[in-house]
Amino acid sequence: MLLTQNSKMRKTGSDTVRVFNWTIRAGVSCPYAGACNKVGTCYAQSGAYQFGNVKRKHEANLEFTKNEFFVRSMTTEIGRISKRLAKQGITMVVRIHDAGDFYSMEYLLKWLTIINEFPNVTFYCYTKSVPLFKRLPMTRPFNLIVNYSMGGIADRQVNEDTDRHVHIFESEEQLVAAGYTRNDEDDHLAFEPGITKLGLVARWKMVPTWKSVQELVAV
Asked: Which of 55, 58, 61, 209 could form a disulfide with 25 if both were Cys (CB 3.0 to 4.6 A apart)?
């Protein structure tokens, strides 16, 4: 299988929703990363992500995205799963990139081709590849929900008044005071319509705080 379900995706699901994720190697696939690479705090390059079998799988997935059969293979898998779930009255949701990012326009367009095949499947992502989305040569599919992840080198291209985006805060008090909706416990708010300001509270030392992100991006 190309798609998997990590613990957070299983927790995000419900009796009527199943969430799957696609993962590629982080770092080399993140051309617009900022503070996370600068201070070595990328969650997807630490912990269980560093296990040998996990790293090999993510590297293989990254290489497969460059294969001419990627779109066909992913389309086949999503079609098979979505049809099975539909018979049970369950909606399929796909998170693109539990780790990694859209590393090129060619790769992003491959995903748009896949997404357009499945109007009844919801796709969502967190991404720092803002410039790629801002210069798309085509209209973004209605069933793709994009959450711009702040802290990258292209933050200035994000309109924080209108673009859906995510910030990391030092505390819940800061998050609420700034007018953001917390999205820590599971991931369902990341694909819920109508929310433009999502916030996360830094829990681990490897996660840069809201203040440190802003300081580092400004450097």
From this structure: 58
